[in-house]
From TrEMBL:
PANTHER family: UPF0410 PROTEIN YMGE. It is a multi-pass membrane protein. This is Membrane protein. Belongs to the UPF0410 family. It comes from Streptomyces olivochromogenes.
Amino acid sequence: MEISGIISAILIGIIIGVLGRLVVPGRQRIGILWTILVGIVAAFIGSGIAAAFGVANTKGVDWIEWLIQIGLAAVGVAALDRVKVRR
């Protein structure tokens, strides 16, 4: 992976994290940096899952890949919020 690919993955991860946070209902007690980190991780894992299912490279916008990434980010934000609440 080239440096431009890593930078674009980070930028997309930020967007994915924010969208994932918006999907989770209620107030989340985690900071924006945690949200961004969850989004970046969800973007990388979601890309891997989409590639495994063969939906990573389609003509036009990769909607299925985006949905997988946003879903993973939502799960990550909700899980991290629950861990923070228990402390």
